[in-house]
Every structure is written in structure tokens, then in C-alpha cells.
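A further point concerns the way the authors explain their paired sequence and structure data. An entry of this sort, consisting of the sequence and the corresponding C-alpha cells, reads as follows:
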Amino acid sequence: MSTVVVGTAYHAPTARELETLSDVAVVVADDGVISAVLPASSDEAQRAMASAGSTVRLGAHERLLPGLIDTHIHAPQWVQLGTGLDIPLDRWLFEYTFPLEARYADEGFARQVWSRMVPTLLRHGTTTAVYYSSIHEGATTALAEACAEHGQRAFVGRVGM
């Protein structure tokens, strides 16, 4: 059954245009595809809500946004975000990044990180990602599996740039 989201939505019909759609009903089919955007008060929207599996009503200060696409994520570095900001790049790489990235040889460690990273990115709106993963094949495969398990569209590779 479909889901209907009722409230205010933002939408970018072109690269230079942002539209605010106030008091709309966004009908999402079972396959996740938006099948209609209707004025919430219209008869068609009322019928869609009556037949939907669920209706989500956004609060006065909530907004529906399109999914975000991150085209360059160094996945192994996710756990060290915000560290070493006060040191030069070469020190940061040798003191933080390279030792951390070596830990991804342990597939169990990689799975623990990915099981937190992918859901966190999804909760923050990143529905599609291009991941630069580890040089370690097992960790890279585990990242692709985590994306599939949590429903994130992704391109995952050992070299993503």
C-alpha cells in the first residue's frame, strides 16, 4: 500500500530554482516512487489518504526534502571526523588516517563502523552516496552489503575518485 506525506515540501525543478510546496499530499507508491503531488485539500488527495497504508502528517515546523547525494565520501575516515583539525595534512594522515585505515583489514571492525555510518548518513538525509572504501576487499564488500541492508543507494569502490 502507498504512503502519503502531508505538509510542506521543498523541491528543485531546476538547478537554479527552489519551490516551496505548501499543504501538499505526496503519494509514495510501494516501490518508493512518488506517484503524485496533490493539494492536500483536493478530493484526489483525500481519496489517496483514505486508501493509503499510512499517512504521515508533518508538524508545523517540519519539511519534506529530496534525498541528498554525497558524491565523495572517504568511508574509512568517518570515525575520525573532526579530529586533527589543528595539524598539517601530512601529520594528520600519518597520525590519524593511515593507522585507522589499516584497521579495516579486520572485517569485523569494518562491519561495526559501516553498521553505524550508513544509518547515520540516512538519518541526516544522504539517500545516495559514492564511497571510497578501504583497500581491503572484505571491508569494501561489507560496506556494499551495509548500504543494501539499510536501503542506501550507493556506488562503492576501493578507489572512488
Notes: The longest helix spans residues 107-123. The CA atoms of residues 2 and 29 lie 5 Å apart. The longest strand covers residues 3-14.
